[in-house]
Write a structure and sequence with these properties.
- The protein is an alpha/beta fold and 190 residues long.
- It has one domain (3-184).
- Helix content is 26%, strand content 23%.
- The chain contains five helices and eight strands.
- It has a six-stranded mixed beta sheet, with no helix packed on it. Strands 7-8 form a two-stranded antiparallel sheet.
- Strand 1 (3-10) and strand 2 form a beta hairpin.
- Helix 1 (49-60) packs parallel to helix 2.
- The protein starts with a strand and ends in a 6-residue tail after the last strand.
Amino acid sequence: MQIDRLLFPITTLGPGNRLVIWTIGCSKYCFNCANPELLNKNPQKDINVSELVKMIKQSVGDQKIEGITITGGDPLEQIEELNNLLESLSEISNDILIYTGYTLEEAKNVITKSDWENFEKYTSVLIDGSYVNDLNDNKRALIGSTNQNIIFFDDAKKDYYEVYLHEGRKVQNVYYNNDLISVGIHNRDQ
């Protein structure tokens, strides 16, 4: 699976102290993409899913992961490996949020039924839809533009997420790989 970075703890891409995983590769090429460096696939950053899970467990140690967010790039463009990863991550947290540029309908049309069933089984929340710069209202937490949807596959998570959503957008600056990166949902002009 092509992965660019793992960060923990992140509090700006879902409730609680989250492990966030950035995948590589996205065919959407949204204008003003938050992560343009992750659009093009990079085979040099390919890692076996079992090695990735081992790395996650070692790097987090005894710290409590309250949730996991997988973004990119577009994680759904690596669906088979993503499903293998989701199954392993479900042993670490029962709150897994996934971002995709596909709408729910598009995703169901490009992913096989069995892959989709497995994906939905381990995913708590899906943020769907391409980022549209003109629809960035500079307000909503978790979504970059108002065409995107927050879809709950696990209804038990709704109240937990509602509290987080009412807090509004957040940005967290993290020193990573000799750079300062800003993590979260940014306003249109940032």
